[in-house]
Amino acid sequence: MIAVPDDFPSVFEGSAAHARAQELGAVRVDTARGADAGDELARRIGTAQIAINIRAYARFTDAVLRACPELRMISIWGTGTDNIDLAAAARRGVTVCNTAGVNAIAVAEHAIALMLSVARKIPAVDREMRGSAWPRETLVQLHGKTLGVFGAGAIGAQVARLGRAFGMTVLAWSARSDAARLTALGLTPASQADILRRADFISLHLRLTPATRGFIGRGEFAAMQSGAILVNTGRGQLVDRDALIEALAAGRIAGAGLDVFHDEPIRPDDPLLGLANTVLSPHHAGQTAEVRRDGLLLTVENVANFLHGSPANVVSSES
Length: 319
Fold this sequence. Notes:
Blueprint: E1 2-4, H1 16-22, E2 27-29, H2 38-45, E3 50-53, H3 62-67, E4 73-76, H4 86-91, E5 95-97, H5 104-119, H6 122-130, E6 146-150, H7 154-165, E7 169-173, H8 179-184, E8 188-189, H9 192-198, E9 201-204, H10 218-223, E10 229-232, H11 241-249, E11 255-258, E12 278-280, H12 289-307
Parallel strand pairs: 1-2, 1-3, 3-4, 4-5, 6-7, 6-9, 7-8, 9-10, 10-11, 11-12
């Protein structure tokens, strides 16, 4: 049995990926709310051997895995694994696979769009013009600026390529400290401190782990240039929320383009909504038709490979 316990809002049911999954065995899809509750998630998985994880709000904790002893594989639609207790999965013999790289182009384009939107003040200028104003703003260009990329996986590497196309100097930092790989990608390896000090734009593409939670905090904001623009399309928790709000409100940095937040959906009283130097989007950087189609199909192909004894795109607790 293949269970899809968290298809809300629904993207999987009735898709080409759904049809492909049905070729592999019986498929049960839940499209109602409620998979964010651990006991309900476990109930929906039940005795299934395979779970296809659509949404990051469905948290596969040790308690959930313990309640589903028949589960042998979790196939994630997307890259992030912070909603999966990878260590518990490893202990219980549950293979976890993701679709890293499928959304790289879409997310990288969105990161650049956020950079441009903040630097060119496009949302603010648009609002003023619709109010019959003719604003004369001083804007910031990307050409000739320094872009710091934290995380050089598929998305970070694509952001770097696009940045170079705009005529930016690109500095990169990897959690794996693999300078040779960065150089092979055509990137300039740099330390965290060096990027914070030199970058006009900083883009976050790190996996959320205990080590990267709060990666950018008060000390890091203090080290940035006053004209720096932060872009986060990774995970909201990569940045200390209070420190971010303080830095933006005080003008410690010039602005931020954010696609991810600590609370999703964002709360109506969140201070970020009242800050004029932010551009916000609802965690949809990868929501293109191409990414949805290709990502869902790869999610199911990961299941097929696992069932055929040759799992691919496996994520481990050490990776």
